[in-house]
Amino acid sequence: MANSAEVPIAYQAYTSAAVPEWLNKGDNAWQMTSATLVGLQSVPGLVILYGSIVKKKWAVNSAFMALYAFAAVVLCWVIWAYKMSFGEKLLPCWGKAGPALDQKFLIKQAALLATKHQFHNGTVETPMATPYYPMASMVWFQCVFAAITLILLAGSLLGRMNIKAWMIFVPLWLTFSYTVGAFSLWGGGFLYHWGVMDYSGGYVIHLSSGIAGITAAYWVGPRSKIDRESFPPNNVLLMLAGAGLLWMGWAGFNGGDPYAANIDSSMAVLNTNICAATSLLVWTWLDVIFFEKPSVIGAVQGMITGLVCITPGAGLVQGWAAIVMGVLSGSVPWFTMMIVHKRWTLLQKIDDTLGVFHTHAVAGYLGGILTGLFAEPQLCALFLPVTNSRGGVYGGVGGVQFLKQIVGGGFIIGWNIVVTSIICVVIRFIIPLRMPENELEIGDDAVHGEEAYALWGDGEKYDPTKHGFSSDDQTQHGKASSGATQVV
């Protein structure tokens, strides 16, 4: 046993190795907490929300699509995708692939992940910002962002995509689409150098998932006719629990992006909640005014559009701007979903199950454009590598910033339409994108051999040995002993 005099010496040696002088334990703790909050948005947040907001016969399949995507992204991220997003430049929009598993790489001090904007003579325009924590913290933080993007995309495809095709789609889309947006806007790519603002993923995550989702929905095809006509949520209260995890987890989503527990982080969290609350209320009142009833699902959609809209500017705008953005995020996506969607033939033909195009693509692009209007100059200086950046309402070069935001979003839209289409066409040569008709008719039991609830109900094929109705019940439901299909 070591004597008492040796213990402090051993502890000192351990401390100097595990907690080096450059490490800021507060920043590191907040970064890991933020990453955990974002992870909880997906697992269990969106797993619960997806499993509850769909028809009962698709509860297991929808939840599993989210769970599978999270696990697949984690492995792909550390093996090759992280460095494609935040590593050395291969192309102006893409980094070189490589593993993020080397211990020396993971424990070293994290330098700024993006190469700073440089002049032709090699000088740096703004000082380098340096997060004072291990690179491992950053790898995990960015990993959960990548994972939630695929899960959000899945919302467009619920209720009919072949699960085996989804298993192939996830790593392909992560590799050829997500990493390009992440590197271009965050990792030192051409949009980053040009000064396009995306504080926490309005473009990288939400615009890309919304556009890719509706594009993939086009290639996969629609749900069965009966599912498109009637698709009631199987558990509204449980859906609210998932939505609540999503809202509260957004504190890590936006609050972790300054890479420090600082003033900007606090502002981002406050602005996030201001915008989300405002958007929820506006969406609810629009439902009351035009449909005479406040919809719970509508309120959740308004909450999500508010969270999405503030994301590209959470740490760049003042509180009053967050309220304005909340009003617009509660009304513009409401208008595109409730009015435009019902009158535009193209949108009617594409079956976007959860309306991800409206809640994420429309709200994300709207937020990016509004950030170009409302970004406050001093806050921009804390975030952007380009000096004198500001939103349009602050004059000067603000008008240029507004145009940059439009162009930056346009690149994300174009890339995702093209690449997602290519991925779907390639997969289609290997395996059908859409489930066969017998699986579409039955649902979870046919796809997974499992069901969400120990009940017989919506969309299941009747089996008298399994469901055990009495003769009176069979007569009431119009059942014959031969086992005809009954849809409730």
Tell me about this structure.
The protein has 488 residues and is mainly α. The protein contains 21 helices and 2 strands. 66% of the residues lie in helices and 1% in strands.
Short key terms for the protein model shown above:
2 domains, disordered N terminus, two-stranded antiparallel sheet, 1% strand, globular, transmembrane, 488 residues, Ammonium transporter fold, mainly alpha
In short:
The protein is mainly alpha-helical and 488 residues long. It has helices spanning 6-18, 25-53, 59-86, 103-107, 135-154, 163-185, 190-194, 202-220, 225-229, 236-255, 263-291, 296-310, 319-343, 345-349, 356-374, 377-383, 398-430, 437-442, 444-447, 464-467, 471-476, and strands at 89-91, 94-95.
**Under the CATH scheme, which architecture of the largest domain would be assigned?**
Orthogonal Bundle
How many helices in DSSP terms? 21
- Major sheet description: 2 strands, antiparallel
Strand order of the largest sheet: 1-2
- Strand tally: 2
The first-level CATH class of the largest domain is given as: Mainly Alpha
The fraction of residues assigned to DSSP E strands is under 5%
Which class do the helix and strand fractions yield?
mainly alpha
Q: What's the structural domain tally?
A: 2
Protein name: Ammonium transporter
GO cellular component, one term: plasma membrane
Region (Disordered): 466-488
Pfam family, one: Ammonium_transp
